[in-house]
Design brief:
This protein has helices at 2-10, 26-44, 53-65, 67-81, 90-110, 113-148, 160-190, 195-221, 234-249, 254-265. By secondary structure, it is an all-alpha fold. Helix 7 packs antiparallel against helix 8.
């Protein structure tokens, strides 16, 4: 009799239909789940044998030629692993390698030296990629959850990890266009003070930032519980086109300005 009373007191209460009640603080449960996913991701950063580099390389190629296919895989991950964000850090590792390689090219072109190279690399990795990414991902994460999310009984939230993944996806084409193509063309074509050099250099910046906006739009539009995601595509694109036109009118070579800034911040 006493054991029955103890069991009855230790068992959690049930609803009239026999089901367990939901947690009194679902936001706390979600936070713990996000922390568990984050710890799992960080642990895998040092487990290279468990990373799928072949698939990460496939994603990088398709981000350049058909980025919509990459986000189909994100949908598949949600169905199989119940999360939108990546659980494999292989993409981040390959992106870091690309940043290191392109930084060597910039150090050579700008004649930064060994110390200047490491300073430039730290700036590119922790400010240009991660710092800007944290800012952009957080802003879009807040905007998407507050203004674009479809509210309802079964509505979902945009994962912050997914928002940062979208930034990394959009950053990779920018890296290829501005840190590879532009770097190759800079000395023979873009570095001169004439309209043709300005046109070519600024066009590369237009393509790169437009690609960033487009890949970002694809990422959020892939989430079925978001609506009006076109606001992430058209207004920024129109502003960008306006700035591009103004830069050509005043003959402002953006590439030369950025290269000067790169040199200045490593001094």
């Amino acid at each position: 009799m006493l054991s029955s009373v103890i069991i009855a007191k230790s068992s959690p209460p049930t609803s009239p239909n026999g089901s367990r009640p939901t947690s009194p603080n679902p936001m706390l449960d979600n936070r713990h789940t996000a922390q568990a996913k984050r710890r799992k991701f960080m642990r895998r950063l040092v487990m290279f044998r468990q990373m799928d580099f072949e698939f990460a390389l496939w994603q990088m190629v398709y981000l350049l030629v058909a980025p919509q296919k990459v986000y189909r895989n994100f949908q598949y991950r949600k169905q199989t692993k119940d999360q939108w964000a990546r659980d494999d850090p292989a993409f981040l590792v390959l992106l870091s390698i690309c940043l290191c390689a392109s930084s060597v090219g910039f150090a050579i072109v700008l004649r930064l030296g060994v110390v200047g190279f490491f300073k430039f690399l730290l700036w590119v990795v922790f400010v240009d990629c991660i710092g800007v990414g944290l800012l952009v991902a957080t802003v879009l994460w807040l905007v998407a959850n507050k203004y674009l999310r479809v509210t309802g009984t079964n509505s979902q939230d945009v994962e912050w990890g997914f928002a940062f993944d979208v930034h990394l996806n959009a950053f990779f084409p920018v890296l290829i266009i501005l840190h590879v193509v532009q770097l190759i063309l800079y000395i023979p074509v873009i570095s001169y003070d004439n309209f043709l050099s300005t046109l070519i250099g600024n066009t590369l910046w237009l393509i790169a930032i437009t690609y960033y906006i487009y890949v970002t739009f694809l990422g959020y539009s892939a989430l079925p519980f978001l609506r009006r995601t076109v606001v992430l595509l058209y207004p920024p694109s129109l502003v960008l086109l306006g700035l591009f036109g103004i830069s050509l009118i005043i003959n402002w070579n953006i590439s030369n300005t950025v290269m000067t800034f790169y040199q200045y911040r490593v001094i």
